[in-house]
Design a protein that fits this description.
125 residues, rod-shaped, 5 helices
């Protein structure tokens, strides 16, 4: 087996593995985006109703929060999600693509959003 065919097989194996990893991350990424969107929407809508309540300015903060328990729980859930690292989970495929492009750039290659390799032309010096 020649060196060129071995290199070509290695690149194809790397490309298959990269596309496999990115494809396996997509369902989890979509799930986390839905969870983050739902929690953000719930927090935003309930915050609107909490601020529009005329009793909010007269009640102590804890009493007001317990009176608007949906806002309280959704805000706690949103804080817990960000402490858990949902901001990284939502964009994990983009992080992998970015880091892979950085490494591949050293070898005069790149990749697209799906993980397919792009060979760049050689520059003559």
């Amino acid at each position: 087996m020649s060196l060129e065919s071995t290199t070509c097989e290695d690149l194809k194996a790397f490309e298959r593995r990269l596309t496999e990893v990115l494809a396996s991350l997509q369902p989890a990424c979509i799930r986390w985006r839905i969870i983050l969107g739902f929690c953000s929407l719930t927090t935003g809508v309930s915050a609107f109703f909490w601020l529009k309540d005329p009793q909010t300015s007269f009640l102590p903060l804890l009493d007001s929060l317990f009176h608007h328990w949906i806002f309280f729980l959704s805000a706690l859930a949103l804080i817990a999600l960000f402490c858990y690292g949902i901001h990284k989970l939502v964009i994990s495929p983009q992080i992998i693509i970015s880091r892979t492009r950085t490494v591949l750039n050293e070898f005069n290659m790149s990749c697209n959003e799906k993980g397919m390799l792009i060979l760049k032309g050689f520059q003559k010096e």
